[in-house]
Design a protein that fits this description.
- Helices cover about 35% and strands about 25% of the residues.
- The chain is of the alpha+beta class and about 350 residues long.
- The protein has 2 domains: about 170 residues, 3-Layer(aba) Sandwich (Aminopeptidase); about 180 residues, Gcn5-related N-acetyltransferase (GNAT) (Aminopeptidase), CATH 3.40.630.30.
- Strand 11, helix 10 and strand 12 form a beta-alpha-beta unit.
- The protein is globular, with a radius of gyration of 21 Å.
- The mean pLDDT is about 95.
- Keywords: Acyltransferase, Cell shape, Cell wall biogenesis/degradation, Peptidoglycan synthesis, Transferase.
């Protein structure tokens, strides 16, 4: 088993943060990016840039930890979509490295929430539990998600889609549906937000953050050349919208929305297809994450709140992956017990009342 040390990144490393993160063992995640760190900095979280170095001299792992102060307890870290490790077998050494780190340079952190993109299995859950970690609730919507391999050429890629998705793309193309990549103007961003809200988000139970949050998010990624917005139109108004991101070798369908009862069949599929091809051709992505489905064993469960979203996303790919989810490392057991029993619930409620936004 490898051993690791933990430290804060240098100023120089932070300036080149994205190049470091995308060189991580698993290629990084957009929620570990500098753009996202800047968004969260303005919404209650302090970014902490953490580097794990293996004692065997292999590639370091660069990870974003979001820090928030909790009155009476200290500071909590949320290692969103991290840490990025080669294998689940590296996690015990990472946990130990953080224990030593918090006893020194990162003093005052009473708990760390991990959310690694490690595939779920009985072995993985057992190992994390043996590390002293405690299973917590899911925070991000893509602990289960549909992933499309984008390495084949265009013809082979289209053929690889599920027949429902492939037929929808072909029909929309045949019937003259047009997809436009649009500038990130204030008008277009507000139109996109309206489309997201009009989904109702009904049975999907998707809670929208404020327009200001999405505006900052979309703008931060677009300014770095990582994010882009696509529309289709009906009656000269946007009818389907998608905001997608290229981060390293990964593409992600981050945000989407549409108007109900549209006339054009397959328009939402064509938006995705256009975005996938653009990111493949211009950014060399190797995979595309549709960002959230029901767990792989609940895809046919019509009562699941992501059932409709899952039906759409799995019309592109049959590959649905389940990750291990969120696990907490109690660094001060007494304070963590207070946090787990009542503190977290109270803090989340107070934050929503004060800001109208989710705590995490």
């Amino acid at each position: 088993m490898r051993e690791f040390t933990a430290r804060f990144a240098t100023d120089e490393e932070i300036r080149g943060w994205d190049s470091h993160v995308t060189a991580n063992p698993s290629g990084g995640n957009l929620l570990q990016s500098r753009a996202f760190a800047e968004v969260k900095k303005d919404h209650g979280w302090a970014p902490r840039y953490v580097v794990y170095e293996a004692t065997d001299g292999s590639q370091p792992s660069y990870n974003l930890a979001l820090e928030k102060s909790v009155p009476g307890l200290g500071r909590i870290w949320y290692m969103i979509k991290g840490p990025d490790v080669e294998s689940i077998d590296d996690m015990p050494a990472i946990v130990e490295a953080n224990r030593k780190f918090v006893a020194g340079a990162a003093k005052g952190v009473f708990a760390i929430k991990y959310e690694p993109e490690i595939l779920a299995s009985d072995y993985a859950s057992g190992l994390l539990a043996r590390c002293g970690l405690v299973k917590s609730f899911e925070i991000q919507p893509n602990d289960s998600t549909a992933v499309l391999d984008t390495t084949p050429d265009e013809k082979a890629l289209l053929k690889s889609l599920h027949s429902r998705g492939r037929n929808a793309v072909r029909r929309a193309t045949r019937e003259g549906c047009e997809v436009e990549r649009v500038e990130l103007t204030e008008e277009n961003m507000r139109a996109m937000y309206a489309l997201m809200d009009s989904v109702g988000q009904g049975h999907a139970k998707v809670t929208l953050r404020s327009y200001e949050y999405y505006r900052a998010f979309w703008t931060n990624f677009a300014e770095r050349g990582q994010g882009r917005l696509y529309f289709t139109y009906e009656d000269d108004e946007p009818s389907v919208g998608a905001y997608v991101i290229a981060y390293g070798s990964k593409g992600t369908y981050k945000d989407g929305g549409s108007t109900p009862r549209r006339k054009q069949y397959g328009d939402s599929h064509l938006v995705q297809w256009r975005a996938i091809l653009d990111l493949k051709d211009e950014c060399d992505i190797e995979q595309y994450d549709f960002c959230g489905t029901p767990p792989s064993d609940q895809l046919k469960n019509k009562d699941h709140h992501y059932y409709g979203l899952g039906l759409f996303k799995t019309s592109f790919t049959k590959t649905v992956v389940d990750y291990v989810g969120v696990w907490d490392q109690p660094l001060n057991k007494a304070k963590y017990a207070m946090w787990a029993n009542i503190g977290e619930k109270v803090q989340r409620q107070l934050w929503v009342r004060r800001t109208g936004q989710p705590f995490y």
